[in-house]
Amino acid sequence: MEWETVIGLEIHAQLATKSKIFSGASTAYGAPPNTQACAVDLGLPGVLPVLNKDAVRMAVKLGLATGAKIAPRSVFARKNYFYPDLPKGYQISQYELPVVEHGHMDIELEDGSSKTIGITRAHLEEDAGKSLHEDFHGLTGVDLNRAGTPLLEVVSEPDLRSAKEAVAYMKKLHSLVRYLEICDGNMQEGSFRCDANVSVRPKGSDKLGTRCEIKNLNSFRFVERAINYEIERQIDLIEGGGKVVQETRLYDADKDETRSMRSKEEAMDYRYFPDPDLLPLEIEQAFISEVQRTLPELPDEKKERFAYEYGLSPYEAAVLTGSRELADYYEAVIQTANGEAKLAANWVLGELSGAINKSGLDITQSPVSPALLGGMLNRITDNTISGKIAKTVFEAMWNGEGDADAVIDKRGLKQVTDSGAIEKVIDDVMAANPGQLADYRAGKDKLFGFFVGQVMKLSQGKANPAQVNALLKKKLNG
Ligand code: ADP
Ligand code: MG
């Protein structure tokens, strides 16, 4: 039997507002426990929530960027449950009438094609506090700094068909919220996290299987692993004659497995009802138009422009526009490098990205600035150095040895373009390798590469490669 996987994601993005969604307390991360929770966040009697307009603005931004409908009227509801990090005894969320509905987003698949994923809804809600189980021996601490932080929960249609697709979708949304500057996307700090709903069904069936929901995944790697584990678990279970039961599961990264947290029978009844302390949220067209005007160039638009304007492949354009910072970096390099877009793309995607990944730095922290890299590319295009020597120059710039000109000067890396000097090196190489020379002249063409290598080696990589090729051809053929 062949199985098909069905996945829908619920992604929580903390909105980058200065203050909380219903109070004036700061949302800054990392303050000492309970220093940023005011009377509203603590749920003290007699206080009233006041909606933060910036949170609404950010939700509308995401709605517009995903082609969604912005509800002219949406309603905040109380989701009732008891937990120590929820002092009011309920979370303010949106239930039947969310602010954003019926959006979509395209994801790129590994084979180069793309696929449209439906966004069912996105709603505003408040985050809960945090229970700290490890900091106190035998006790649990409660930190309410996070209580009341605005969240946008983005719910996808069950359109995803593999763990890879789920990760591609999550990455795309992650990139989008950062382009829109509505979420810092910091996954270690929990600013962007995901619940994954997973089910399997016989291939060809159009009925959905019973799903399990894996809670609180906070890295792309964990999302992929948890989903793949869950797919196998469900298939093994069904093929062994069992049945998947609808339940909430937790992913244990150390053991790389998911474990049951609570089944549907134990699921809470949240007794949702409209919050009587908050008026319905009414959004006028004028507000939507105002937000529309603030939208930046979106990732997909930028990707298309890069491909068209800079002559890049779809793949190159996609990677370079993967984050706004990388795209900005790339365009700044082109500025310095006199429009050498293709060369700039090769270096940004190759050497620079390699060094960034290896160092664990962020592109904005790169010791090689766009101006430094662009300046070095100019030395390639004006034939001062070869592409190969440029790697040495790049490494030196990365290590803080100054700009390309300084490095070339200090290390004597200037390319040799004097044909007399190159011919002299070729003569030496030919004299030192009479056997190979005879073989080459007897028809062993492949030895050409050997001679190129020897000449480059003897010139310490400094001979101009194009000239070496041309002169060698002439001389070897007698
Ligand atoms: P709830 O609010 O109870 O979590 P929803 O119906 O709103 O449930 O669905 C939440 C998420 O689960 C959505 O992303 C949806 O696409 C996904 N989903 C629903 N049914 C399935 C299923 N059978 N298999 C996989 N995902 C599903
Ligand atoms: Mg859910």
Overview features:
20% strand; three-stranded antiparallel beta sheet; single chain; alpha+beta; binds magnesium ion; 478 residues; binds adenosine-5'-diphosphate; 16 helices
**Overall mean pLDDT:** 94
Strand order of the largest sheet: 2-6-7-10-1-11-12-13-14
**Structural class given helices, strands, pairing?**
alpha+beta
Span between termini: 68 Å
Q: Mind explaining what this structure looks like?
A:
- The chain is 40% helix and 20% strand.
- It contains 16 helices and 16 strands.
- The chain has helices at residues 39-42, 53-65, 163-179, 220-239, 285-294, 299-310, 314-320, 324-336, 341-359, 370-381, 387-398, 404-411, 419-432, 434-441, 447-458, 465-476, and strands at residues 3-14, 69-70, 73-74, 76-80, 90-94, 100-108, 114-126, 130-132, 141-143, 150-156, 192-202, 212-217, 247-252, 257-263, 273-274, 281-282.
- It has a nine-stranded mixed β-sheet. It has a three-stranded antiparallel β-sheet with strand order 5-4-15, with no helix packed on it. Strands 3-16 form a two-stranded antiparallel ribbon.
- Strand 12, helix 4 and strand 13 form a beta-alpha-beta unit.
- Helix 10 packs antiparallel against helix 11.
- The structure holds adenosine-5'-diphosphate and magnesium ion.
- The site of magnesium ion (MG) has 3 residues, from loops.
- Residues 10, 195, 213 line the site of magnesium ion (MG).
Quick structural overview:
By secondary structure, the chain is an alpha+beta fold. Helices cover about 40% and strands about 20% of the residues. It has helices at about 40, 55-65, 165-180, 220-240, 285-295, 300-310, 315-320, 325-335, 340-360, 370-380, 385-400, 405-410, 420-430, 435-440, 445-460, 465-475, and strands at about 5-15, 70, 75, 75-80, 90-95, 100-110, 115-125, 130, 140-145, 150-155, 190-200, 210-215, 245-250, 255-265, 275, 280.
